[in-house]
Design brief:
The chain contains no helices and ten strands. It has strands at about 1-5, 10, 15-25, 35-40, 45-50, 55-60, 65-70, 75-80, 90-95, 105-110.
């Protein structure tokens, strides 16, 4: 299994980014998928998840600002991030929620003026 996250970058507070995670070697459609974030000096945390039928959950810190979606035909999961704050800074990873696969390299998101 290989998970490749992309779409990160440097953005000013209040800005938006859309992250993508493409998988190879596995079908994402059969798995509840999540986006995780690891801020500097902190543990990796789950910020959003999407179930096999599209049910979504969000961490309180991102509720109302982030949206998670999936395109099973493209074997891809997305994270739309709006109204970004400096505390959203970190490396973002995707993985399945239960029995994580090997972690990919993630994509760096930096929110700073």
């Amino acid at each position: 299994v290989q998970l490749v996250a992309s779409g990160g970058g440097l953005v000013q507070p209040g800005g938006s980014l859309r992250l993508s995670c493409v998988a190879s070697g596995v079908s994402l459609s059969r798995n509840t998928m999540g986006w995780y974030r690891q801020a500097p000096g902190k543990q990796r945390e789950l910020v959003a998840s999407i179930g096999t039928i599209g049910t979504t959950t969000f961490a309180n810190s991102v509720e109302g600002r982030f949206t998670i979606s999936r395109d099973n035909a493209k074997n891809t999961v997305y994270l739309q991030m709006n109204s970004l704050k400096p505390e959203d800074t970190g490396v973002y990873y995707c993985n399945r929620i239960i029995n994580n696969w090997e972690w990919g390299q993630g994509t760096q998101v930096t929110v700073s003026s």
